[in-house]
Amino acid sequence: MTKTTHGRTARLELDDQALRDWDALVLDASPEGIVLDRSAFYPGGGGQPPDHGVLLWQGVQTRIAGVRKGDDLELIPVEGDPVPPVGTSVRCSVEDERRTALMRTHSGLHLLCGVVFRDYGCLVTGGNMDPLSARMDFDLREVPPGFKQAVEDACNKEIEADRRIEIRTLPRAEAFEIPDIVRTATNLVPPEVQDVRIVDIVGLDTQADGGTHVASTRQIGHITVAKVENKGRGFRRLRIKITD
Predict the structure, then answer these.
(1) Any idea which architecture 99-243 has in CATH?
(2) Where are the domains of the chain?
(3) Structural contact between residues 121 and 115, judged by C-beta atoms closer than 8 angstroms
């Protein structure tokens, strides 16, 4: 498996989405940001917020409030928390409840996208998420009768089907040979990205994506379509909630 890096940091979470605890070495540190040689903190992207967590070192705790992507992957410490010196070995922990909720939510959005594309042929125009709640915008000119309930029922049927969610990385040219690999109205995969990470809800939805996901649709839980909003020019916003 190809190791993914950002700057000087090996990104562990893309290869092992169940990883919550690991050891790392501090390469750079200030109150503005901490750079590790290895990190499983998801830095945010694709609508998924960055992880929270802690670093433990020499009997001290540094809380991590977020992650910043620049030339390096910088962990953002909570203001006022002590910062480990360069060269320190640290024990790292991602906040499990938050990450798991975001994984369920992100996979739920992919499932929603797959259902709406399959049943209505609509592309995504935007989206965002919090733990266990999210919204996704679609290019849908007219809302058919019973649309809200039909989408909710179809989503939960796919959850009960317990479809596998598989992740692989393909060369760009090979990835873009997959039909409908980009489900957004605008191709959001930058041209400089030559290895494309693919998230496949087997038999339903295959998309280019850089986020973290659960292993099967049943692990998402139950999806409720809470609201369908008209955002103008034929764009419809679906708000969903995820429950056990």
Answers:
(1) 2-Layer Sandwich (3.30)
(2) 5-94, 99-243
(3) no
Q: Is 99-243 in the same CATH topology as 5-94?
A: no
φ and ψ at residue 125, rounded to 5 degrees: -115, -5
SS3 234: coil
pLDDT, tens digit, for every residue of 36-67? 999 999 999 989 999 999 999 999 999 999 99
The helix (H) or strand (E) run that includes residue 158 is: helix 147-160
Whole-prediction pTM: 0.94
Residues 6+ apart with CB under 8 A from 113: 124, 136, 183, 205, 207
pLDDT digits (tens, 9 = 90+) for 4-16: 899 999 999 999 9
Each as own residue / partner, the long-range contacts of residues 168-173 (CB below 8 Å, 24 or more positions apart, any chain) are 168/197, 168/198, 168/200, 169/2, 169/195, 169/196, 169/197, 169/198, 170/195, 170/196, 170/198, 171/195, 171/196, 172/196
The partner residues of 243 in beta bridges, in order of sequence, read 222
CATH number of 5-94: 2.40.30.130
